[in-house]
Structures are given as C-alpha cells and as structure tokens.
Design brief:
Elements: H1 3-15, H2 18-25, H3 29-43, E1 48-49, E2 56-57, H4 59-87, E3 91-98, H5 104-116, E4 120-127, H6 129-138, E5 143-149, E6 157-164, E7 166-171, E8 191-193, H7 199-210, E9 219-220, H8 224-232, E10 237-241, E11 250-254, E12 262-268, H9 275-290, E13 296-297, E14 300-301
Parallel strand pairs: 3-4, 3-5, 8-9, 8-10
Antiparallel strand pairs: 1-2, 5-12, 6-12, 7-10, 7-11, 13-14
Length: 310
C-alpha cells in the first residue's frame, strides 16, 4: 500500500468523480483509476460503487475513509514537523574570512542567514589565510574562507571554489607587455604583491622556489586595488591572479612557468559538525560556486567595488 493511493482515494471521495480528483491533483484520470484499483485489489474490497455518474463509497469504503484521512494527516504532520526542525536549526558558528573580503555571495549568505535562521548565532573574524587555517585546526573557528596555494594545511578539509594561475600585471605598452612571460623575465623589475599569509603571495613564492629564483617582493599591500593603481602608475610589476587586470590601461600577462596556482577555498575540520555548521557550510559553498566572481583579493577571490576606479 502506498500513501499516494490513499491520497488519490480521498481525493475521489472529495471530488465525487475520478475526473475531478485528477484535475485537483494534476494527475491523469487513468493514473488515478489505476492506483485506486490497485488499492482495492490489495485490500480485497471494492471501495467505490461505479455504477452511477458520481462514484459512491461502498460500506468498505465508508469504513476505510476515516482511517485513510487519519494516515494522510499523520504524514502531513510528519512533514510539517521536519520542515519546522530544519528552519529551527540553532547554535553558534564561528567563521573566519580573509582580510578585506568583499565577495558579494559570501557576505550576502551571511546576511541572509540571520533572517532565514534566526536561531543561528554568527561570530565573524578576519585574518590572513595562514592564521585562519591555524584557528580552524585548533577549533577556535568552525569554518573559514581563505586564499592559499597548493594544498590546505594537513587536518583540514578544503572545498576549492576558484583555482587560478598568477600573472604579471603591467600597463599597456610596458616592455613586458607580451602574450606571455616566464618568471625569469621579472628579474630586475620591482615586484608588487599581496602580503605573506595570502594565497597569491604563496603561489608566487612557491613557483619561484621551484625554478630556483629569488621570490623577492619590493612592496606589498593588502589591497589588490592598491597594487593595480601602483602598477598603472609605473611603480612596478604587480603579481596577482590572471583575472585581476580590471583597468582599461592594464594587461595581465600569463606567467607560463608559474606552476603553483592561487586558490580560494572554504575550509573546515573533517570531523563531525553541528547542524548549524553543516548548514552554513552548504549554503556558502553553493553561493560561492554558483557566483560568477572573477578575481582574487587579499589572498582570495574578491570582486572589486564598481566605485573603485583605477
């Protein structure tokens, strides 16, 4: 016996015809008739007298009807209770994010959570990616959005959102304005980059070391927008993500031998989490992966503010 058979049976009683029940439930009339007939065969009793224009309950149907409605009401109550439980997830979630994070889907999800799940209390901390990884490992944070290179720290589960190569960003017409460059071509140039503890800086330094190059940085700044402005004004070559050159006068030149990519990821410990932590992890990951967010910032993905002009 299936619950849909009981639902079809009750709908035929309410509508007094198989056609009316089919229209109400948006099911074909033949589907309703087939399932009710199966129910009757299983019970070994005819539930309807079909000899007239409007179907009438048989004595067996009269006896079964209240029980069927009670079963359907119980099922609806179970579903309603489960839905209420899902909406009433409670607890505290301690989340970290990279310094200066301005990623709309990430921030929008945190803001929406307060409205959709008022029982969840959020604690938000900013930091560099290395520090955030240490805090998640120690248990002082539940989740963190970080920028990193290669792999996240051992003991962490990282869900990669963006994986992007690094590039040299220069003004159009710069001597290095070519289709592509090796890292060795940056020798003698002033290098502008994000600080240590960010994914892009780690990707740059790791790529240089693999080639036996000195990963020297002459000037670092925590804002990609600041680095782009400096590069535009001739202060040096900015090493950022491949999609960072947002200004009309800038070019992002692929570094062909930079083997390590910069990544943006959501990290957590792989052990069991509370329902609130699991819910927020799911919501954040879905929002970040579905968003068309283009560039890395503060060691991770960061869409520049449209009011920021280069």
């Amino acid at each position: 016996m299936e619950m849909r058979q009981l639902r079809y049976f009750a709908a035929v009683v309410d509508e007094r015809t198989f056609t009316g029940a089919a229209e109400r439930l948006h099911v074909s009339q033949s589907g309703i008739s087939t399932q009710v007939a199966k129910l009757e065969r299983e019970l070994g009793q005819r539930l309807f007298d079909r000899s007239s224009r409007h179907v009438r309950l048989t004595p067996a149907g009269e006896a079964v009807l209240p029980l069927a409605k009670r079963a359907l009401a119980t099922l609806d109550a179970i579903r309603h209770t489960a839905a209420e439980f899902a909406d009433a997830v409670r607890g505290r979630v301690r989340i970290g994010m990279i310094m200066g994070c301005s990623i709309p889907p990430f921030l929008d999800t945190l803001a929406d959570l307060g409205r959709t799940h008022p029982g969840i209390e959020l604690s938000l901390n900013e930091g560099d990616s290395d520090d955030l990884q240490a805090q998640v490992l120690s248990g002082s944070l539940d989740l963190a959005l970080i920028g990193y290179a290669g792999q996240a720290a051992d003991g962490l589960e990282a869900s990669v959102v963006i994986d992007e190569p690094i590039a040299a960003v220069v003004p159009a017409g710069h001597p290095l304005d070519r289709a592509e460059l090796p890292l060795t071509a940056l020798r003698g140039e002033k290098i502008l980059c994000l600080p240590r503890g960010t994914g892009i800086r780690a990707a740059y330094e790791d790529s240089c070391r693999q080639l036996g190059l000195d990963p020297g940085v002459d000037l670092d700044a925590s804002s990609p927008a600041a680095l782009l402005r400096l590069a535009e004004r001739g202060a040096g070559v900015a090493v950022l993500s491949a999609s960072s050159a947002q200004g009309a006068g800038l070019r992002a030149i692929p570094l062909t031998d930079a083997a390590t990519h910069a990544r943006l990821g959501l990290i957590a410990r792989p052990d069991e989490h509370s329902p609130a932590v699991r819910l927020l992890h799911t919501l954040l990951l879905a929002a970040l992966r579905s968003a068309q967010v283009a560039s890395f910032g503060s060691g991770g993905l960061n869409r520049p503010d449209p009011k920021d002009t280069l």
